Amino acid sequence: MKILYGVQGTGNGHIARARMMAKHFSDRNIDVQYLFSGRPADKFFDMEPFGDYQLRHGLTFVTENGKISNLKTVMAARPLQFIEDVRALDLSEYDVILTDFEPVTAWAGRLKGKPVIGMGHQYAFGYPDVPERGVSAHSKFIMKYFAPVNHRLGLHWHHFNAPILPPIINPEETLKAGGKHIVVYLPFENQQQVTETLKTLPDWKFIQYSPELSDAEEGNVSLRKTSLHGFKEDLCSARGVICNSGFELLSECLHMGLAALTKPVSGQSEQLGNAAALEKLGHAHVMNNFAAQPIQHWLQNIPEQAPQQYPDVAAAICEWLLDGNWNNSIGLVESLWQRTGRAPLTA
User: Fold this and answer.
1) CA dihedral 289, 128, 250, 26 (to 10 degrees)
2) pTM above the 0.90 mark?
3) In tens digits, what is the pLDDT along the chain, a chain of 347 residues?
4) What is the CA radius of gyration of the chain?
5) DSSP 8-class letter at 9
6) Which domains, from first to last, does the chain contain?
7) SS3 category, 330
8) Could you give the dihedral angle defined by the CA atoms of residues 10, 63, 148 and 83, in that order, rounded to the nearest 10 degrees?
């Protein structure tokens, strides 16, 4: 079996999932070609697991000061190049297309009649009991047609009585006891504003990560350029996390039992839905605006979070892919949730 695996490069969550999938593909000697889009080539880092990967411009959202910028999103789009990239992508050597909300591979597979499997958080939305917030006709259209698939494997923190899988995490990651610092990862916010706000809370030590930053020290705030190993080390030894409401980092927090304060990106229906789910499940605290007051209140009352201890979902998906029965994912879904101790899906 040969797989073309498309990965959306906006944010780091899709790539983090792909790293776990790549490990298991490699362990099973599965032939996989990776294609990434949605980020400039020089903004990718720690990409060794993906070998000789391909890049395309793709499509992405542009944010400014914690909000979706519709104007900059439109200006960044290159529709004619996107159409050409879709048409020119040669799929003749692949048996199946796997896409984590990556539009070039998804649309190429649809155009050329290849089976396309959507695996990712976005494919969990649209079921009746999955929490949603801020959903408009426009956002529903995007969710449906941004990266269309024949089969979907949605990922979420709970099954919500739907055929959804638990999140893909590294099951070997554990939280070290006695953490004192707070990891701050708010890549969609104004980083200078974030730093200045954190400096008004001098009793706490913060480690602020962003692709825009260079390593430096500003009072009680350590500035760090986003990196894989440094970030993971600081995360696993933290007292808590302040982050936007993207899926993967919060999945890691829930898995390890790490308290989180999260701010959804304004106008981004996926992150607004994540915030609604976290509130419903009682797994994290949500602030709608980035400001010192809600941060201080959370710091004074950081809750103890029970680790969710999700199973090795990536390994199970690899086995399911090899089995080839892509029309039926119910057995995969039920077996993974049973391993978490959650109640089985309702009929």
Assistant:
1) -140
2) yes
3) 999 999 999 888 999 999 999 999 999 999 999 999 999 999 899 999 999 999 999 987 666 666 666 556 656 778 899 999 999 999 999 999 999 999 999 999 999 999 999 999 999 999 999 999 878 887 888 888 899 999 999 999 999 999 999 999 999 999 998 999 999 999 989 999 999 999 999 999 999 999 999 999 999 999 999 999 999 999 999 999 999 999 999 999 999 999 999 999 988 899 999 999 999 999 999 999 999 999 999 999 999 999 998 999 999 999 999 999 999 999 999 999 999 887 665 53
4) 20
5) -
6) 2-169+311-340 (3.40.50.2000), 182-300 (3.40.50.2000)
7) helix
8) -90
Q: Which residues contact 238 (CB under 8 A, 6 or more apart)?
A: 175, 179, 181, 182, 183, 207, 258
The token duo for 222 is: 């350590």
Please report, as a single letter, which amino acid is at residue 74. V
Task: Count CA atoms closer than 13 A to 170's CA, side-chain side.
Answer: 16
**Sole residue written with tokens 């500003």:** 218
Of the candidates 255, 259, 253, 200, the residue with the CA atom closest to the CA atom of residue 231: 253
Give DSSP secondary structure letters for 253-282. Answer: HHHHT--EEEEPPBT-HHHHHHHHHHHHHT
How far CA 321 is from CA of 10, 24, 152, 155, 170, in Å, comes to: 25, 12, 12, 16, 19
The angle that helices 13-27 and 247-256 make with each other, rounded to 10 degrees, is 70
DSSP string, 162-197: SS-BPPP--TT--PPTT---EEEE-TTS-HHHHHHH
What stretch of H or E contains 116? strand 116-120
Q: Is 60 exposed, middle or buried (0-12, 13-18, 19+ CB in 10 A)?
A: middle
**Residue 335 and residue 180: Cα distance in Å, rounded?**
37
Query: Which residue's entry shows tokens 């790539």?
Result: 15
